[in-house]
Amino acid sequence: MEVIKRPPVVVLLNFLIASVMFLMNAPEYTLFYYINSVFYIVFFYLFVALLMWVIRGKFFDGVTYSFRRFYSKVSKQRDYLEEWKEKPLPSDTINHSWLRMFFFHGSLMLIAMLLLLAIYYV
After folding, report:
1. Is 97 within a domain?
2. Residue 35: CB partners within 8 Å, gap ≥ 6?
3. Residue 86 lies in a domain
4. What domain range includes position 18?
5. pLDDT at res. 35
6. Single pTM value for the model
7. Cβ atoms of residues 8 and 76 within 8 Å
8. Least CB-packed of 26, 56, 74, 105 within 10 Å?
9. Which of 7, 106, 97, 110 is nearest to 56 (CA)?
10. How far, in Å, are 29, 47, 75, 82 from residue 20 at the CA level?
């Protein structure tokens, strides 16, 4: 967990992962294929961040609550030790610091990718 608190280490680790992906998958070693490798990392970070943002925004809470309520009414196997109203909703399980970390690293890698694209097309 200590590594996550130091952003430069994680950014360097991300570029190292992109470099390894580039070396393993590129048909030829050009800047274009390196930019593609960086894009995969950026896509992962931003996809996870946006998914966490939607969940944290209570988008799925109503559906989850409804399914739990329906299951407790219809179910023939009653578990009296487990109360469905006391279970945390999906928005309660998302940690704000993880959300910020994914957005920060995704946007930082996106800026780096855009700079590489500017170098490639100039």
Report:
1. yes
2. 113, 116, 117, 120
3. no
4. 7-74+91-121
5. 96
6. 0.80
7. no
8. 74
9. 97
10. 12, 21, 50, 47
The total of other beta-carbon atoms located within 10 Å of residue 49's CB is: 20
What pLDDT is attached to residue 81?
57
What number is the average pLDDT over the span 76-101?
Answer: 78
**Residue 89: helix, strand or coil by DSSP?**
coil
In a domain, 82, yes or no: no
CB neighbour list of residue 21: distance below 8 Å, 6 or more residues apart: 37, 40, 41
In this predicted structure, which of 6-15, 17-26, 73-82, 97-106 has the lowest mean pLDDT? 73-82
Q: Which residues of 55-70 are buried (b: 16+ CB within 10 A; e: fewer)?
A: bbeeeeeeebeeeeee
Tokens of 88: 């945390």
Query: How many CB atoms are closer than 10 A to CB 22?
Result: 20
Residue 64 lies in a domain: yes
What distance in Å separates the CA atoms of residue 116 and residue 32, rounded to the nearest whole number?
A: 9
Residue with tokens 């996106």: 110
Q: Where are the beta strands (DSSP E) in the chain?
A: none
Token pair recorded at residue 84: 């469905």
